[in-house]
Each structure stands twice: as C-alpha cells, then as structure tokens.
Task: inverse folding
C-alpha cells in the first residue's frame, strides 16, 4: 500500500509540474483558449491544458535549433518510415499487436484519413454505419461526400452507453459499404469489450462492409478497462479494417499534424491505393514526424502522470455532479478525457450549450453537433488543472441553482 501511495504521489507531483495556469493558457494562440471571450472558460475542443512532454519538446527543439527545414530523411529513408516504425513498436508494446510496417501509411491529418477510405470504398448514395452521437467530422464526411448515414444509436442502459447492431439490421442493404467504429468512443467515453467488438465486426463481415476504426484515444483508458485494437482480433477482421490513429490526443500535440492509417491486409491496402494514390495523401512535416516518434518512444512516463491526473479529474467531476447537480446525468467515462452530460432533466428553454455559455460563461461542445437530437447534451473536456476544473464546476453549479 505504501509503495502504491508513493507512486501515486510521484505522479501527482509530476502532474503539478505540467499543469498550466489560466493566465498562461490564455496567452497561447490555440483554438481552445482563443475562440471565445476572455470571460469564458473553454471546455470544448479535445486538447489538454498541460505542457508537452519534455522528450517531445526536445525533438522539436532539435529541428528548430538546427534550422533543419529541408525535405526530411530519417536514418537515410523517408521520414514516414520512422513514423511507421514507431507505430509498430508502440502497438506491440502497448497492445501486444504485431503490425507490418508496410501496411502503415503516415499522413498529416486524421480527418483526411477518414475522408480517404470513405472515398476509396464507397460511392455517392452508399450507406455508412456510424455510431451516434459521434465525433462531428464523421457526420461531415458522410454528408460532404454524398453518402447515406445509417445511425447506430448509443443507448444509455442506466450504467453506460451501449449499441446493438440488431437495431439497424433492417436499414443495412447491399449498398451499405462502410462501418465506422470509434473506440474509445467519442463523446460517451465507452471502451468497448472484446465481445462487443467481435459482435460489431461479425455484423460488418456478414454484410461485406469495410470497417474504419478510429482509435485515437486508445492510450487514454482508465483502470478496469482495456483498449483492444479491432484489427488484432484475427485475420478475417483485420482483412477489412482500416485503423486510424495518432499521438496527437494522448500527447497533446494536435497542431503538429501527424497520423497513420493502418491497413489490416495487403489486399486492403492495394484496393485503397487503386482509388486514392499515395501521393494524394501527402506526408507529415518534419516537426510532426520527430514529435510523433518521441511521443510513442519516450513519452510514456509523462502519459502515466497525465492518466493519474485525469483519473482524479474524472472522479471529481462525476462526484460533484452527483452531489451538487444530480439532475445532470453523466455515465462514468471508461476512456478519453471527455464526459457526455445529459441535461434533459433541467428542462432548459434553450440548448444546453447556450445555457452554460450565457449563464455560466463556459464553452462546452454543443451536443447537437454530435447528433441533431442531442441539443440538451454537452461534451465536457475535463483535461485541465484541478483549480480550473473546480472553477468550471463552481460556475456550472451556480448557474444551475439560479
């Protein structure tokens, strides 16, 4: 017990070293702290209020101090090879998943990595299964490319959010080409079990669908839960699974723009490249490459401290909601640093986003952007310092009491 407590204390001490104050955060030129007015506390876009891990900072400094801005090579090869190798090592170390580096395609932007498979494996008018509520760019992909959204609802079972493909069996036809999986799920914070993943994969296999598996939050999983890469569940599942991921969420470097697509088989990769030439996908930039390699290879001690902090923040958030604002329903997130808040019982005469923005001076993510029927929900990003988290909760509670 004493050893465990000492480890926890070290993690908390480490965490305090990278907590950023509100004044420091407001000086940054990022979307989270720059979009709204100076009297509004932001808790929306999915980035964390923590200073970046030192190995990442050192990797960036090496490029900047060396004025090394030419076409990047790493170890005599294209820089993307280093990203692929770092991804392979990370997947083996974290998830005991053996990945072929030849099936990894580095790219600059994860949303780009969402659009490209939709364009490669479907045509306008084809169906795309999407868990709802879900990350808004997925809905945008479907609408922008003229595909048909087939919504797979995430249902609150009284403890957590679950989905059942039996609900959409009648809506899926031969023109339903793609199944989009988000695991850990954004915004509900679910981390799907092996049985749930197998059930969804079997549904897709039986209907000959390609699976796009967004696993960008895979490092952000709390005790008692386990992230399982979908493509690690066997060759039949891997053969139709494209995994998209990046260190940008877990290591707080979204502006450095580096991500990967992983194809579960050579056949799948070739089918993709027949429709989307590799040159069209572009390459990550030199700073993003080095930051990514440093994050995956050297950033775990920092991330361990972050997870200890996020666990405390999650539990504080849930505890205070239950005691001070019991009308707000929040299922405990199993992963991510995002909480999905159901404010329906408060019977606002406006959207939940507008209520908290106008009355509490807090900017959450608006629920209706994740699903049009969720205007009485907000998504709460709790990846911040404890003083800022308490200030957010205090302002929420005051507004609700009024």
Result:
């Amino acid at each position: 017990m004493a050893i465990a407590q000492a480890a926890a204390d070290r993690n908390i001490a480490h965490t305090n070293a990278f907590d950023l104050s509100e004044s420091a955060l407001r000086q940054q030129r990022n979307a989270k702290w720059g979009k709204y007015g100076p009297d509004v506390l932001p808790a929306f876009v999915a980035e964390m209020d923590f200073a970046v891990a030192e190995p990442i900072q050192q990797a960036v400094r090496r490029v900047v101090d060396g004025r090394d801005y030419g076409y990047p090579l790493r170890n005599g090869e294209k820089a993307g090879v280093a990203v692929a190798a770092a991804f392979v090592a990370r997947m083996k170390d974290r998830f005991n998943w053996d990945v072929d580096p030849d099936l990894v395609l580095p790219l600059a932007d994860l949303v780009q990595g969402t659009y490209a498979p939709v364009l490669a494996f479907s045509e306008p008018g084809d169906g795309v299964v999407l868990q709802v509520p879900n990350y808004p760019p997925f809905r945008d992909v479907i609408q922008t490319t003229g595909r048909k959204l087939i919504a797979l609802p995430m249902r609150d079972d009284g403890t957590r959010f679950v989905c059942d493909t039996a609900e959409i069996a009648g809506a899926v036809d031969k023109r339903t080409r793609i199944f989009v999986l988000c695991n850990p799920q954004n915004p509900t914070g679910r981390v799907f079990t092996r049985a749930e993943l197998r059930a969804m994969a079997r549904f897709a296999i039986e209907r000959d669908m390609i699976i796009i598996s967004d696993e960008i939050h895979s490092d952000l999983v709390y005790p008692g839960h386990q992230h399982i890469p979908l493509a690690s569940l066997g060759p039949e599942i891997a053969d139709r699974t494209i995994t998209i991921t990046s260190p940008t969420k877990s290591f707080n470097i979204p502006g450095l723009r580096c991500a990967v697509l992983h194809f579960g088989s050579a056949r799948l990769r070739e089918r993709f490249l027949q429709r989307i030439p590799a040159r069209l996908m572009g390459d990550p930039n030199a700073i993003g490459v080095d930051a990514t390699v440093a994050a995956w290879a050297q950033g775990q001690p920092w991330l361990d401290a972050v997870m200890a902090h996020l666990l405390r923040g999650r539990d504080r958030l849930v505890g205070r909601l239950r005691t001070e604002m019991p009308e707000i329903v929040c299922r405990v997130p199993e992963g991510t640093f995002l909480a999905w808040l159901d404010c329906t019982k408060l019977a606002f005469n406006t959207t939940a986003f507008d209520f908290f923005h106008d009355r509490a001076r807090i900017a959450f993510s608006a629920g209706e952007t994740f699903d049009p029927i969720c205007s009485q929900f907000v998504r709460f990003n709790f990846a911040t310092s404890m003083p800022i988290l308490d200030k957010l909760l205090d302002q929420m509670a005051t507004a609700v009491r009024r």
Notes: Residues 1-15 have pLDDT under 50 and may be disordered. The chain has 15 helices and 16 strands. The domain at 2-52+300-401 is CATH 3.90.1150.10 (Aspartate Aminotransferase, domain 1).
